[in-house]
What does this fold into?
Amino acid sequence: MRAAAKPLVECTGLMKTYAAGGFAAPRGTHVAAVGGINLAVAPGETLALVGESGCGKSTTGRLLLGLEPPSSGSVKFDWADLQALGERGLRALRKRMQIVFQDPYGSLNPRFSVRRTLAEPLRIHLKLSGSGLEKRIRELLESVGLESAHAGRYPHEFSGGQRQRIAIARAISVEPDFVVADEPVSALDISIQGQILRLLMELRRRLAMAMLFISHDLAVVRQVSDRVAVMYRGRLVELAATERIFEHPAHPYTRLLLESVLRPEPWRGGPDASVRAQTGGHAGLSMPAGCAFSARCPLAGSNCLDGSPPLREIYPGHYCACREAAATTNSI
Amino acid sequence: MTVLAATDNAVLVRVENLSVTLAGAVRAVDGIDFQIGHGECVALVGESGCGKTLTALSLLRSLPPGVEKIDCARMEFEGRRIDLMGRSDLRRLRGGQAAMVFQDPTTSFNPLFRIGDQLVETIRAHRKFSRAAATKLAMRCLGEAGLEEAARVFGSYPHQLSGGQRQRAFIAMALSTEPKLLIADEPTTALDVTVQRQIVDLLARLARQRGLSLLLITHNLAVVARLADRVLMMYAGQIVECSTVEELFSAPAHPYSRALIECLPSLERVHSRPPTIPGNVPRPGHWPTGCRFIDRCARAAGGCELPQRLKAIGHGGRLVRCHLAGGLKNRVGGGDESGG
It folds into this structure.
């Protein structure tokens, strides 16, 4: 909920609904991709947003950047309400917030050379041109571990990891205060993932930028983030400092996620009973009346059907949206 | 030629000196030998472009466009020569005795037909079954794949199922022809963590119950650790290490295997600098003439510039393509020592 310092980005009651698509859905049905969340990112902080596919984490990232308008609720960036700003005001803010996408094949224009890709934001936002522009492009390429001689090349001439470096160079070119990194290493080979994580961590330190790190990979999240927010079906179910959430996960969904992580340890035994018990994904649009997780939850009781549980502080800085968890957390 | 021995069991699949050449005479797979025993799970592991998928597809001789030719000394399935098979025999093999499961369960089914109809069609293409008998078998397979509401799934279209359910249904279809070998190409990569684990456990259970041989193709070492008996580590078109899964994870022999295992992010350990392997995976056509890992290897020394052969280490049939192996400090750990 509240970050310790004055927040850089803050959203309140953030909600995004889409009309249910496809011929199978009845007309007028709406799906809440993001179902009303409050979240704040402090300057320089890395907040990880984790959850399964379709839980609304990418949509949240896009809403925080003002790339899409929320259905209700508000996003404030450095106290400015994105909704109230309008196009022109938003454009001025754009150079302070950037995004890195998962797929470095899709996120770069294949017909733009690296120089042109990097020059565009520099021209628009920093009004650079001529030798100043060239110099900045060289610096950028070097700061992400590419050779400045590569500026004339096109995306297809690079490997996946190198392309992700170009995408990062583009994002940091305007020295943003806030970057949304949406699964930035998921499409990369394991041996390359570490390189990109190192780069992100180093740049974050050097440029003191805040980051929303969207990922489904908990082991990666553990390495890079200061705090972790766990989403389930459009809602935040748990939020705490990274150390805290890995050592003392409170929400049954967070625990399920952590137990599900396959370990590269062949000597580990068979499946845990708790993991086996909770099969079943969530096809379809129907939301349970109460806690969205109650259908899969081992702790589910009758009061879980009584409306969506709110986030409550169960430990300083540790928030959990589960009525049953509070009773059991003390015992871990 | 070295022959990679299957452990104990009689051999189901034997591949000798397999090479795959892409258009423009670019080698993508370069002289692979391996065997798969009955009931054994062999994992082909490596990063993108190492040739693992092409190797597996060569087994069914169903290579994608862009492949110029396959060369091999021999490829056998139960003693029959796959490399010499005619079209009709191949068709019986594919999806029959050797079935395949793919990465993306959304595209592996035809979206326009119900799941059940696709299962029944598959069964009847491979076995002399009446429609009623095929339907019964399809329902049984869906149940065996852990789909509790088999009847509902049978009547559903692919888009009506979740990703995990679709992958289970596809596994059911693969099993319906009673294969002896299941080739699973990144079977969990497109799935969520909670579902990933269920699918891995399902494959392990089915392989055990049915005595199925499994050829698992993946880059995910955690999946390998849970499923495989033996691991073939591939790098730049070659096998660089062949070990049992315990050997690989407790004492990887090839510097690449070792570096890759050290790269895995851990839930318990936080690194100030995440471990990594410097440089990039070399693309087919750009392989170094000597050891192909030479540019990225922390231990590269004199002799590495020469082509490396697979050599035996220990007594259990372990093989490694590194002239320095055996002299390496064989422990994982060391954490942050790799620079980059």
Notes: Chain B is about 30% helix and 20% strand.
